[in-house]
Amino acid sequence: MNVNPSLACARSGIAVVAMVGALLFLTSGFESAAALTSEEGVELVYRLQGASVSQVDKAIDVIQKRLEQFEPVKKGQVIVSLLRPQEISVKLPDLKGSDLERAKNLIEMRGDLRFMIESVRQDAAKIAAILRRKENGSYNPDDEKFDIALRKNAEGKPLPTSDAASYSLVVRKDALSGEMISKVYATTDDFGSSAIGFDWNAEGSRLCGELTEKNKGRNLAIVLDGVILSAPMIKERITGQGIITGNFTVDDIKDLIVFLGLEKLPVKPTLLKESPRRPDTKDKSDGGEKRGTEK
């Protein structure tokens, strides 16, 4: 069989390039793992209760992307992986204090953003009834006209979750989802305070226009994971863009932009264990690997 020498050389060249590419990919992965295991850090174990295999995969992907955008963490310093069914491991560098708490917040928040009209009549009995049903698991949001959202105090901290007086009654019908937001960015409000700006996609712009047009004079509660970020009064029809204001710090703005710029988590992670990691060593003080802090 005759073989074209030029074609053979070309094929050989392609094979060599492919092999080099594969080696570079593997080397990069080994370098990231080596960088993580060569320094002290922390491992967090989370439970994803009731999550399907696809939901667990999605949660791993979203959490990895969130933490890669977290400024105190450098590239290759985070590994999110499956530990066992419905349990994941998050390996972080040696974060301390507020940085570790922010990282946990980025992992544990679902990132479920909703725009909901506040009820004109804040019925205390109805709020208490919904709270009880949520606590005992009998509340099915798909069958409900109303929901409750936790309010914040003057300092911007959520009020006690066990007190019905801490909640506001909101209307589920026609609520808008944060999934219809196409872009999120840092901005300022009319008074120069830090705020979050966002752009609706075409569907979100249309639905927001309809919702605000028929609810002028009422409050639009902007709710993230069941907590009201702000509830401005609707003065006119709103389309295209919007702004979220509140008592936000610079770090709050950065973290909220991460949340709102990615998909929400399918389920809320529950922290099971927090363990210190040491470089390629095990803590022998208890006769084996350190078990960490059980939650």
Protein architecture, described:
- With about 300 residues, the protein is α+β, with helices and mostly antiparallel strands.
- It folds into 2 domains: about 35-110 and about 265-295, Alpha-Beta Plaits (2-Layer Sandwich); about 115-260, Gyrase A, domain 2, CATH 3.30.1360.200.
- The protein has helices at about 5-35, 55-70, 95-110, 125-135, 200-215, 250-260, and strands spanning about 40-45, 80-85, 85-95, 115-120, 145-150, 165-175, 180-190, 195-200, 220-225, 225-230, 240-245, 270-275, 295.
- It has a 5-stranded antiparallel sheet, sandwiched between helices. A 5-stranded antiparallel sheet has the order 5-6-4-9-10.
- The chain is globular, with a radius of gyration of 24 Å.
- It starts with a helix and ends with a strand.
Compute the gyration radius: what is it?
A: 24 Å
Whole-Å distance between the termini? 70 Å
Order of helices and strands: HEHEEHEHEEEEHEEEHEE
CATH architecture of the largest domain: 2-Layer Sandwich
- Strand pairing plus helix content: what structural class? alpha+beta
**CATH topology term of the largest domain:** Gyrase A, domain 2
> Which oligomerization state do the chains in this entry correspond to?
single chain
Biggest pleated sheet: 5 strands, antiparallel
CATH top level of the largest domain?
Alpha Beta
The number of distinct helices, counting runs of at least 4 residues, comes to: 6
